[in-house]
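hey can u check if this looks right to u? its 229 residues, i copy pasted from the old doc so theres a chance i mangled smth
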Amino acid sequence: MISRMRDIQMLYDKGGLVSNSNSDDPLLEWNRLNKENAEHGFASALFQSMSETSPLIEKFSMWLLAGTGATAALLVTQIESVLPYLSTQGFKSCLVVLVVSAVAGFVAKYYSLRCEIQNSVQSKLMELLKPVLEKHEEDEDKIQEYAEQRGIVLQTDIEFSNVMNEFSKPFPFWLRWLMARKVKQIAGDRQAGFHIAVRAYTSQIRWTFFQVVLFVVFILTAALYANAI
C-alpha cells in the first residue's frame, strides 16, 4: 500500500515531475510527461493482468493439496493394508514426499494470498484517491492562477513525506521505522506496488511447480517400492 501511494503521488504530482526536467519548453515537457505516463500505465496494466491470474493457479494448487492430504490420510489409516504392498522404507519414503509436497502447497498458498492482498489494496487505493487527486488538481490550478495574478510563488505539490507521517501516527514505532525504510527503498520507483504483486505471483508459480513435481515423485516412489510390480 505504501508503494502504491508513492506511485499515485508521482503520477499526479505534475509539479514535482516538471521540476526534474532540464527542458525549458513547456510543450516539450508536457509531451515528455504524457509519453512517460502512458508508458508507465501500459507497464502497470501488464503487471496487473499477469498477477490477476493468480486465483487460477491457486485453485489448481488447492486441488492438488486436497488430493495430497487425502492420500496421506489414506496411507496412515490403511497402513496394515498398504504395508504388504510397500516395504517399510517405501511407506516412509512415500509419506515424507507427500508431507514435503503439502508444505510446498502451503507456501504457494501464502504467496497467493500476498499477491491477492496487494492487488486488492492497489485497486481500492486507486478508487479512493482518484477523486481526492482530481479535486486537488482542480484547486491547484485555481490557486496558481490567483497566485500569478498577485505575483506570488506558491508550492502546491503534495508532500509525500507529510502523508506518510500522518498515516504512520497510529502505528507502533517499529512499524513506523519499517514504513520509513520501505519508502526510502522504493523512492522513485513508480511500479513498486506492482513489483510486489508480481514477485509474489512468480513465487506462487515456483512453489506450485515444486508441489506438482513432489507429487509425481510420490507416485514414482510408490511404484518403485511396490511389491506387486
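Confidence is low (pLDDT under 50) at residues 1-21.
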